[in-house]
Amino acid sequence: MEKLLRNSFMFLSKNKMMTKLAKKYGLRFGAARFVAGNTIDVAKDVIKQLNNKGLDVTLDYLGEFNTDANEAAEAADHCIKAIEVIGRERLKSQISIKLTSMGLDISDDVVLENMRRILAKAKDLRVFITIDMEDYSRCERTLKIYKQLKSEYDNVGTVLQAYLYRTVKDVEDLGAYQANLRLVKGAYKESANVAYPDKKDVDQNFKKIIKMHLLNGHYTAIATHDDQIIEYTKQIVNKYKIPKTQFEFQMLYGIRPEKQLDIVHEGYKMRVYVPYGTDWFGYFMRRLAERPANVAFVLKGLIKR
Ligand code: FDA
Asked: Is the CB of 188 inside a 6 Å radius of any atom of ligand 1?
């Protein structure tokens, strides 16, 4: 049953019609639990509240799979505006970006042009940018573009997914770039040809890459809600005396907020991934797919309407 629900949510996450309707009708069905709001003005207040509690933020202007160059340029404009707000209001926030929102499905030139505009502004205002990792079919090109941008700008990092067989090799490879990496389990539906189908293997690979990247001496963000992985990381950093300036934990907005604060109170850095914007449907469906228990929120949202 759980697998069926998960597959249904993953299928819906790519549904263009639903995405269009969702944009039109605004945050619904309990999505406000996971999405800060429609605009940067609303998101800004959420960031301030989180910062006041000792939580850092990475802000994501929602949107993906842009196939129109004008829309991709507009998405870049939104990111630049967000960077200006972060700089002006002195918020403790970075920015996360999906390359398909910047035109990855159009051409390398389009995505590079948009990302260079964003990175130049971010460099001026000392804002760090993380390139999110999307599905396997886009992984190789995302890493190629990341490497190109990293050779031009220092304020850029990316994400690797523990569920992919290729990831151990990518961690080794990115060592030469001194990459600032966010490590995650992986959120997309992938075939067993490219990704571990078994959760146990994903967790084992996750631990392996966390240890590898930390011991390589590069900055590591461990992005998970999983206590087992968090405890493992604490053991490794204690055992190998990894300084607190070399790693941080990350979680998604709306998921385990009490645990986020516990981690801050223990003296670790915790960064919350805060999405905002009207294109919330795909993101929301992926969150439900990860944890069908959250469906209760959808049902409550439907009843309230
Ligand atoms: P998982 O979902 O396997 O849960 C493991 C355990 O954690 C559960 O059994 C439970 O004990 C606990 N848990 C989880 N959710 C809980 C809840 N709501 N309440 C209580 N306990 C809970 N993916 C991707 O492909 N590309 C990307 O760029 C990113 N970026 C990203 C940034 C950040 C900051 C985060 C946190 C995650 C991502 N992800 C991502 C998503 C990631 O790949 C993954 O899908 C989710 O984090 C879910 O996996 P977890 O590691 O949290 O554990």
From this structure: yes
Query: Is the minimum distance from the CB of 133 to ligand 1 under 6 angstroms?
Result: yes
Contact 253, 36 (CB under 8 A): yes
- Dump pLDDT digits (tens) for 290-305: 776 776 666 555 555 4
Q: At what angle do helices 167-175 and 199-215 cross, to 10 degrees?
A: 10
pLDDT of residue 17: 66
178-200 pLDDT per residue, tens: 999 999 999 998 999 999 999 99
- Under 8 Å between Cβ of 182 and 157: yes
Residue 104: domain span: 36-158+188-197+251-279
| Structural domain includes residue 300 | no
Q: Which residue, by CA, sits nearest to atom 7 of ligand 1?
A: 226
Nearest Cα residue to atom 53 of ligand 1? 226
Mutate to test the pocket of ligand 1, among 135, 226, 298 (most ligand atoms within 8 A of CB): 226
Report pLDDT digits (tens) over 6-48: 777 677 777 776 676 666 666 666 778 899 988 999 999 999 9
In a domain, 45, yes or no: yes
Rounded (to 5) percent helix, strand, coil in the chain? 55, 15, 30
Number of domains in the chain: 1
- Residue 115, domain member (yes or no): yes
Cα–ligand 1 centroid distance for 13 (angstroms):
17
Q: What's the pLDDT at 291? A: 76
pTM: 0.92
Nearest CA to ligand 1 atom 15: 225
| Residue closest to 249 by CA, chosen among 265, 260, 237 | 260
Q: If you measure from the C-alpha of residue 283 to the centroid of ligand 1, how many angstroms do you get, rounded to a whole number?
A: 13
